[in-house]
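User: Assemble these into one structure.

Assistant: Restating your components, then the assembled model:
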Amino acid sequence: MGAGHAHAMYVHQHSPVHHLAPEVKIVVALAFTITVVATPREAVVAFGGYALMVLALAVVARVPAAWLAKRSLIELPFVATALLLPFFASGPRVDLLGLSLSVDGLWGGWNILVKGTLGVLIALLLAATTSARDLLVGLDRLRAPQAMTQIAMFMLRYLEVLADEARRMRIARVSRLDDPRFLWQIKGFASGLGTLFLRAFERGERVYLAMQSRGYTGRLPAALHADSTATARQWAAGAAIPLVAVVVLLLFGGYPWKP
Amino acid sequence: MEALRIESLRYSYPDGHQALHGVDLRIGAGERVALLGPNGAGKTTLVLHLNGILPAPRMPGAAGSVTVGEQRIDPADRAGLTEIRRRVGIVFQDPDDQLFLPTVAEDVAFGPANLGLRGDALHARVDEALAAVGMLDHKGRAPHHLSLGQRRRVAVATVLAMRPELLVLDEPSSNLDPQARRELAEILLSLTESGLAERGLTERGLTERGLLAESGLTERGLTESGQASAPVTMLMVTHDLPYALQLCERAVILDEGRIVADGPTGELLADADLLARHRLELPFGFSPHVTTMP
């Protein structure tokens, strides 16, 4: 059951990864990311192992490589930092292609680059295989505070309603000869924002009344999302991923080992 | 048998504005009644009294009583309110207020899940309610991808899923295009004429599969499965006078917090003076005298 086709991040597919219960995927993604981050930056082979695992997961989940590549552009600001580090860090230096680079900076840049990329790819795989609604259901089952999951659930539902209202208000403004150009737009926009807030606030009250009328007492009933709760088998299958990552870490992370 | 009895109901908002000045109204089981009245007459305030949203417990400006079936509403009795809210289903005017979950199916499941239904019993409830409004095919869709007419039908389903005895609709026809307006009328007529049981909305099938025992509802909602075969009573709040004539045999006019007229809808609408006194008007070209029921 997906929430229509409104999700920018979700890649609609039927794969074992897609069918895994969301709470399993969230825990797996988190554990995998922590393992990656806990790996010493010098353990190049371990990172290679993780990259292979991410690749395998992407293939199993049938997430197109081009999609992953495009979406991981979000990482660019961090890449810039990583590229600058070798030039500005202090400590012993090494000459490479006529440039004097800091050894420590090179490792630091590599550290950011490899861990950032792997982390982003893991998060993207989670987003591509789990709809926003399912992510919230998963968080709820993992006992995330309901105040947060409910607010996010409402946002999911009402963002488009609000955007629609904003659009209508803008059209009404423009129809009365408001001339929305860069800075001049701000006054109309700001007062529009105030109105929008008030409308959203009033709607919130009406929604609450309607919920109360249907027996709401402060908690969303768990039975709403009782389908496809994680089975022991799903947990076992999911746990295999971070376990393999930990094995890679122990084999190649080589804590006593330094270059 | 009476479905609803309101006795000298008074209500003042906390700011001192008095909205209801002693409302008396009795509605029999299976009746379809239109509640007419100008803006600011107190219609919405009255509706919110029907399932105990108003008044808040120990509110100074509140007096009188509302009785649904045999149960008098007591704002301080939480368990009693749950039962009242199961028996009285309110469909609010803006479906975007009513539908707050990401998918249609979840939203329809919200009410019955609050009553304690789970698993297959819950699914069955959702399906039958959506089938009753012809929206079963849109189960997995997001509300904002539906047309207003479809959203309003789903809003009706969210309330039907609780198997209400009294269905209250606030301006059901507002902003609908003519076709959506007619489709909704047909659905509402079919619900109240045949009763829920004859549409397959019986508990028996569920009991046989042993689903009720685990739903925890055997004590509360489901003991009245005998009553579920009674047609649903309907109270429709509206300005749309032709719609009232089409759907309701009886109408009451509420103005300035009082019931000022009560009678067959056709007769009330034919009384031009009465309508004018209470800021109601028939649409141009419409005559209640020459209209025959379709």
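Residues 121 and 210 of chain B are 10 Å apart (CA to CA).
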